[in-house]
Amino acid sequence: MKDVASSQASRQSLIEHLESRLANSEIERALGGFALVLIELYGDGETSREPGGAEKAETLATISTQLRGTLRDSDFFAQYDERTFAAVIPQFSDRATVERIIQKLSIALSRPMTIHGRQQAGDLSPKFGFSLFPSDGTTIEALIAHAEKAF
Q1: In a domain, 80, yes or no
Q2: Cα distance between residue 39 and residue 150, in whole Å
Q3: Domain that holds residue 18
């Protein structure tokens, strides 16, 4: 599974990954398409009120680990922006399967996390949006817009 540390690099890596998939769109269609899942995080507890710097980085790394552990090795995973992660899940074109994956991601975020040496309740309130290639779009812009609209 591929992931990148910084938000800027991750967003760029996501775009490059999607460009690569779309460059092979006929193969992607033949394999059943793919899902783009965006996970936007909001929280009511300590994990959402981190002051910044190293503490914030540790919180995001812990959340990233929780999410990555739910995905398959063949899935692409990156931090999209400060509060949003993205996953590209190949060979999925039906909404019911993607909704089950989203449910697993939600459960992963509800589990307690150890941050700064303290166990904290999973108090994040994630919002999920997804799009399917090719039914929801055949361009990067259309796929991202559809996933964002689904929040």
Answers
A1: yes
A2: 11
A3: 7-149
